[in-house]
């Protein structure tokens, strides 16, 4: 059994992203620079915009794991190249939806995200610490 000296950096989310049904990125909070915008757009175009894999919350494309959930007309997802705790990440995403809904009078959709994008970035900074859920 070999231990990596940098275990924690492999287990955190690199980005939390919110996109609409067409695959347009509305929010992209990066915690690390190991995943490019092109890799994120690849997921948005191949999975979100085509409605593929709605029942599959974890998808891997080109070495990047995308853990996602859909709420109303938006998709929230975490992406990483490491071995992330998928259950914890899904729990975090669902919890973030609840928190955001409480701020936006019970409704979280594309319109609410567009109108409150700066607040969403602030919320993400409060509930995530360098990609680790708090």
From TrEMBL:
Q: What are the BP-aspect GO terms?
A: intracellular protein transport; vesicle-mediated transport
Q: What is the protein's name according to its record?
A: AP complex mu/sigma subunit domain-containing protein
Q: Which domain of life is it from?
A: Eukaryota
Answer whether the UniProt record assigns the keyword Transmembrane to this protein: no
> Keywords for this entry?
Membrane, Protein transport, Transport
Q: Where in the cell is it found?
A: Endomembrane system
| AP complex mu/sigma subunit domain: residues covered | 15-131
Among PANTHER family, the record links this protein to:
AP COMPLEX SUBUNIT MU (PTHR10529)
Q: Name one GO cellular component term.
A: endomembrane system
What Gene3D superfamilies would the database entry show?
A: 3.30.450.60
Please give the organism. Favella ehrenbergii
